[in-house]
Design goal:
It is built from 13 helices and ten strands. The longest helix is centred in the C-terminal third of the chain and has 22 residues. The N and C termini lie far apart (61 Å). The chain has two domains: 150 residues, no CATH class; 176 residues, no CATH class. An eight-stranded mixed beta sheet has the order 3-7-4-8-2-1-6-5. Strands 9-10 form a two-stranded parallel ribbon. Helices cover 43% and strands 16% of the residues. With 347 residues, the chain is of the alpha/beta class.
Length: 347
């Protein structure tokens, strides 16, 4: 970029032993003056960054082009000795040059925004909040990086998925919204999971399926080129009915009393996720060949009645390990009919 004198209002602040400058800068300036010093690749002082993930960059680029907001500050470490910052009467001044400041936090945001600017030049005027430290050591940069990325916890995924129901259209993950709709329908009357989908803010209790787990399990079915699209089942009601029939079949196998018992592995997230994997990978292809997604068709394909899967079988195992074990048990019990049903396609 051509050299340009930047003057912008700022606030100086101190937290503990460190001072920083809080200001706003155009995105075109932030992307030009900053760079990532990658730990393990750069030996310079202050190198704490990881390698960039192109998938995240592309996602942020799309988010930027769609008009996404960036209220959180990019955090920089000003390292240039030839081009110094000056602060006078609440105004920050410097000459814009490349590679003036290391990125402490926000490297994917900066890379994604830079890619968006290359496609839409006007986005260079987007104002970004920026925090600037000066001449920090590697240890100091690491302290700040860890504070941001470990102590400041991300929003729980259940709340993220719940907010998709009220967020602006351009910010929504449509597959997650569809999965959320199906998950919420499982929480209603006449569902085996009536009242068992745990919403954000609900009291903690043993058992039940967090909304985040339900959405995570259902989403691969409903996303583009997902299991439902591959069999041309695109309507919400039909998708909901297939998921509901699968769990109704399981409840019939367990019986009402044992289904509601806390020893039922499907009353926990690992069981739910394993069940959704099994539906996606085994039952949907099978039922599609049978031209039937009815409860009886599903129930008759599983020989579980004498060997119910219990929570005690996976007690003490991690979530992924328990999920794998439950899926394996379902696979062992799967005894699909080799004769195609003589019916029209049924749900």
């Amino acid at each position: 970029m051509a050299k340009k004198k930047i003057e912008t209002p700022c606030i100086e602040a101190r937290q503990g032993s460190r001072k920083f400058i809080l200001t706003k800068l155009p995105a075109s300036v932030v992307t030009a003056i900053s760079y990532a010093a990658v730990r393990g690749q750069s030996e310079e002082e202050g190198a704490v960054q990881r390698l960039l993930n192109q998938g995240r960059i592309n996602s942020i680029k799309t988010f930027t082009l769609q008009g996404g907001d960036y209220p959180n500050a990019v955090v920089l470490n000003w390292v240039s000795t030839a081009n110094k910052l000056t602060v006078a009467d609440g105004v920050l001044s410097f000459t814009a040059d490349p590679d003036l400041a290391q990125i402490i936090d926000g490297q994917h945001r900066i890379a994604g925004i830079k890619a968006a600017i290359e496609e839409q030049k006007s986005l260079g005027r987007l104002e970004l909040p920026v925090v600037i430290y000066r001449n920090l050591s590697t240890a100091q940069c690491a302290d700040i990086f860890l504070s941001i990325n470990t102590e400041q916890k991300p929003v729980p995924r259940s709340l993220v998925f719940d907010l998709y129901g009220v967020a602006s259209e351009n910010l929504i993950d449509h597959a997650a919204v569809r999965a959320r709709d199906i998950a919420l329908s499982l929480n209603e009357a006449e569902s085996p999971y009536e009242g068992e989908i745990k919403m954000p803010g609900a009291p903690k209790r043993r058992g039940g399926i967090p909304l985040s787990s339900a959405v995570t399990g259902i989403k691969p079915l409903v996303e583009d080129n997902g299991a439902f699209e591959q069999i041309a089942v695109n309507e919400l009601e039909l998708q909901r009915q297939i998921v509901l029939n699968w769990f109704r079949a399981l409840r019939n196998i367990y019986g009402d009393e044992k289904w509601d018992d806390k020893e039922n592995v499907f009353q926990y997230a690992s069981g739910f996720l394993a069940a959704m994997d099994f539906l996606r990978l085994q039952l949907i292809p099978y039922c599609n060949t049978q031209e039937s997604f009815q409860v009886d068709t599903i129930q008759q394909s599983l020989k579980l009645a004498g060997s119910l899967i219990l929570q005690s079988e996976v007690k003490g195992q991690g979530g992924a390990e328990a999920q794998k074990k439950i899926y394996s048990r379902l696979q062992d019990a799967f005894a699909p009919s080799k004769v195609k049903a003589a019916t029209k396609f049924k749900f």
